[in-house]
Amino acid sequence: MNSPFISDVPAAEAHAAWREARAAAGCPARVEAVRVPVGAAVGRVTAEPVWARRSSPAFDSSGMDGIAVRAADTVGASETAPVVVKDFEVVDTGDPLPPGYDAVVMREHVHHTPEGAELHTAVPPYQHVRSIGEDISAAELLLPEGHRLRPVDVAASAAAGVTELAVRRAPIVVIIPTGDEIRPVGTELEPGEIADTNSVMLAAQAREVGCDARVTAIVADDPAAITAAVGTAAREADLVLLIAGSSAGRDDYTARVVAEAGTVAVHGVAVRPGHPVVLGTVTEEPATPILGVPGYPVSAALTFDIFAAPLLAELEGAAPRERPSTMARLARKLPSVVGMDDWVRVRLGRVQDHVVATPLPRGAGVLTSLVRADGLLVVPAGVEGHHAGTEVRVELLRGLAEIDRTIVAIGSHDLVLDLAASALRAADPLVTLASSNVGSLGGLVALRDGLCHLAGSHLLDPATGEYTLPYVQRLLGDDAAVIRLVHRDQGLLVAPGNPLGLKDIDDLARPGVRYVNRQRGAGTRALLDHELGRRGLDPAAIPGYAREEHTHLAVAAAIAAGRADTGLGILAAARAFGLDFVPVAQEPYDLVLRAEDVSHELLAPLWTLLADPGFRARVEELGGYSCAQTGERIR
Amino acid sequence: MNSPFISDVPAAEAHAAWREARAAAGCPARVEAVRVPVGAAVGRVTAEPVWARRSSPAFDSSGMDGIAVRAADTVGASETAPVVVKDFEVVDTGDPLPPGYDAVVMREHVHHTPEGAELHTAVPPYQHVRSIGEDISAAELLLPEGHRLRPVDVAASAAAGVTELAVRRAPIVVIIPTGDEIRPVGTELEPGEIADTNSVMLAAQAREVGCDARVTAIVADDPAAITAAVGTAAREADLVLLIAGSSAGRDDYTARVVAEAGTVAVHGVAVRPGHPVVLGTVTEEPATPILGVPGYPVSAALTFDIFAAPLLAELEGAAPRERPSTMARLARKLPSVVGMDDWVRVRLGRVQDHVVATPLPRGAGVLTSLVRADGLLVVPAGVEGHHAGTEVRVELLRGLAEIDRTIVAIGSHDLVLDLAASALRAADPLVTLASSNVGSLGGLVALRDGLCHLAGSHLLDPATGEYTLPYVQRLLGDDAAVIRLVHRDQGLLVAPGNPLGLKDIDDLARPGVRYVNRQRGAGTRALLDHELGRRGLDPAAIPGYAREEHTHLAVAAAIAAGRADTGLGILAAARAFGLDFVPVAQEPYDLVLRAEDVSHELLAPLWTLLADPGFRARVEELGGYSCAQTGERIR
């Protein structure tokens, strides 16, 4: 992550340096206060304390439906010696207590007679009377300054006679996308062009924290143009976000532009991802803070969380929003670079009464790692990483109740699992099926280690020619069940029209055929090895045998990009990339689980789904699948 | 809580009965799907799965700034035997990998010579190359149906070539306020009238969960008019909220109106507050669910949370939003009615490493109990209550980090604490000063029991004539510090013009003078007792001595309402209610704390504030206060 141009400032120091630079440049400490009607104030932050202008209730009132009486008139009343009260008034809950009365008797306890109201119990003074000011006393402090208003706060303000509130206006965030190759979202892209997804995301993040977000036109990689855009933005903004392309070259433009327009307080923080951030100010009156956002999408999203969100809360004079957290058991070893705060995205699930955290891919460009994340785990700069099984604190991106209802599948990937995930959620929004792709063998090991509920497997045992079951016996012993998900076709994925005319596995040894393989432990690789063995072919004779991809779709992508001529995979992957498909084998794809979990209520919706003819029909429509045994327990 | 007209249906049964009634009436299970541009989809729920339309990156690209090379050309390069590569291309991060090259060397590792690029390390194929589909593979499931879209989700969708998303439209909630005495917020109220704060609150609650909320005009207490309003509302709404006044009589209108317009599934739930809720449907096509909301504001707010919010999430096909929770130690005994789920509002603070929960007033009319609440604690129907010190699960209404920074003050109430609370928050939005009013003695006991950081006290020891210190020694021993907050005037609060011509404590024994007292343990009551003792007056001779209020402001309110002629209190309370004030004594008001806490960083901002001349000036402007010793440690 090092570059000659930027430094590694620890996050806390970066915050402090930016704060100092903003103060020195004269950036406003708070946005202005405005007065708004209470009904429009929810979500805004109080700019002054709110004192009650009147009491609530504003008068002594009845707390029940019944009759208002004088307590003194009821003295001595009992079951055996009822008292008949002649002087009373009928009241409903909330009615003012009529003058001269000091207590209320519930309707149910009154027996009306021609002589008056017959009571069987004496009542003390002020029974069922809501005193003036019981809820709010005039002149009482209702809300302090710096309080973000919730529905109950505005209702209480209105009840206290306050109809307008002084609040901070929404901070204005102006977002400037830059980069010659960046195109607006929705444009048909030419090769080499990139959609401006960061602006859409940052604007949404700013709106989510209550700001007014504005996105400018995309600015070319030209320092003069960027400087001009920054100047215009700073005049209307409370915070300018200047998005670099993903290029470090362009980060340097950002730093240069900011240095010319004002001051660079920090260029480069010891945070991964997010390292090449620029924190500075634009000096022109009124001075404005500016944040140079790295172009990689995960860096952009986290940079907003780490640097923009706290500043925007400060401009409103409020505490920053806070994510809840939980302790979780780390599913695998997590190495980390010393000297950098490492923000790791994790999936979470409750397996055998432990919340288990499985780290997701860590690249700054892998936005899906944030999409699929249930939590964030920060490995601080001073820590080298964590061992598997360590209990770590995780900031939650999803609620724990949802996480508790999540079926965790680790193992081989199949599109049928995706289809099932979506169908389960559609039937019950509380059910999530989260699958991580580590290959069949990795899944069985994860199941053994208590890290998942289900392992998807299609692992061929070369010794027996049998799928999955021999491995299950070896790794999990007797205490495991196996449910058939599907049968599916495996075959050679080839460019459209099959230009090399490949017909079967034998052709892989042909000179000039570039193969792309799956990783060790993948069922598809085991299938290849089995087929090579049957034919007496030496893996070393297959060009590209050592080149590994981790999913069917990645193999298809490599072929579509022309980096390879063929690879073994499923029909659905070929279709996704417009490739042709040469069938080689049909194989069973199974779900492995602990035997006791077969009847776990968490999994019941999945078994119901597998029995549903509509779902089976949709699976077979994908092509290359057979559902003849779907849902059968085969062990 | 019983009434002849309504029942006590347990909450889970009530949910089930309502669901069944909605299904039977043909209420739509989901709101319609609409297609919106990705940028406008944040906060909405997917109505169908989102599959990637293209890969991201869409091409093999450079992961670094540097040069693209053929890995084969670098074989054998080392520190001692560098290799000069002639065939290369300069690339920036994100650039497409030029055809024919298969690896990238970082700029920093290249030494450009006239012969070419000199490399000191061999590079493996695909080093620093981001493969096509590294983030997203075409045809991959990006998001399931039923997923509430966050900023990263829409950015990933856009990156996957999806520019429009099918989402559920925002559910429409129509709110009907009813009641002859209800007036729109902002109206000058006549005696007996009540501001329509519930509509403001419920509309804000509905918007907070992503709905389109509409409030109708206030409808009079007339079943025909209410029926007409319900019919109109049901035609546009996905859910109708019909707010009763606070009267049970009016609740019956609700049930009657709903019964006529459709079906009443439930009238009355075993939930406190919230009991008289009505759950039903309006039958006219298309059938619409209707919720009869009780008029008491806490009941209204909680009814929305318990019954409306889950239904609205279901209409969107999403999981309901979920509050984080924590375990906390109960500060005092919490009795509860068996047979009712009891929703108790609590304040939270971290004292001596325990999160402590202090129950707030439990009345359905006390909206400030929700305003001041940091959490909600449900005592289930089957439980009789909890002992003090029990560890209970609390749903959080504020973040734990904020709670950790909260100074918990329990004891006597003084407006200077309110002023300090607001000033502290204004200076640093992360600092909260939360005070609960239980009187001086109650505060010292709470401090002893580890339930607070500070106890506000002005407790006169009749034996010594000394304030607070004798009690501190008795209750807390040597390990306590005392900081002077203020001196303040205590006096007799009297109606404007002092119609009874009261001059001092002696006058309280005059016939016809109705006194209102403070509760046992309150410093003001100790002062009265002391003054009575000095004069040899018998408390039994003071009419109203037994009538207790819990705050200065409540005493003032009682006098303002004409329920009493006088009471002892502070000048600020008299001013708040436009009363006159007859000074009786000047007393010190002190803050008591554990000695080791004097240097606790949590309290540092408070000591800074007490030393601030601007703050002292504002205190003295309140009237009746002297800051001559403010901030001095007197023990």
UniProtKB/TrEMBL annotation, chains A, B:
| CDD domains according to UniProt | MoeA (cd00887)
Chemical reaction(s) catalysed? adenylyl-molybdopterin + molybdate = Mo-molybdopterin + AMP + H(+)
Which UniProt keyword terms apply here?
Answer: Magnesium, Metal-binding, Molybdenum, Molybdenum cofactor biosynthesis, Transferase
Q: Which GO terms describe its molecular function?
A: metal ion binding; molybdopterin molybdotransferase activity
Q: Out of the domains of life, which is the source?
A: Bacteria
Q: Which GO terms describe its biological process?
A: Mo-molybdopterin cofactor biosynthetic process
GO CC annotations on file: cytosol
Question: Gene3D superfamilies under this entry?
Answer: MoaB/Mog-like domain, MoeA, C-terminal, domain IV, Molybdopterin biosynthesis moea protein, domain 2, Molybdopterin biosynthesis moea protein, domain 3
What region holds the MoaB/Mog domain? 174-314
What InterPro entries does this protein map onto? Answer: MoaB/Mog-like_dom_sf, MoaB/Mog_dom, MoeA-like, MoeA_C_domain_IV, MoeA_C_domain_IV_sf, MoeA_linker/N, MoeA_linker/N_sf, PBP_domain
**Cofactor(s) the protein requires to work:** Mg(2+)
Annotated metabolic or biological route of this protein? Cofactor biosynthesis; molybdopterin biosynthesis
Task: Give the enzyme's EC designation.
Answer: 2.10.1.1
Pfam families per record: MoCF_biosynth, MoeA_C, MoeA_N, PBP_like
Its biological purpose is as follows: Catalyzes the insertion of molybdate into adenylated molybdopterin with the concomitant release of AMP.
UniProt lists the family membership as follows:
Belongs to the MoeA family.
- Name of the protein this chain belongs to: Molybdopterin molybdenumtransferase
Species in which this protein is naturally found: Amycolatopsis carbonis
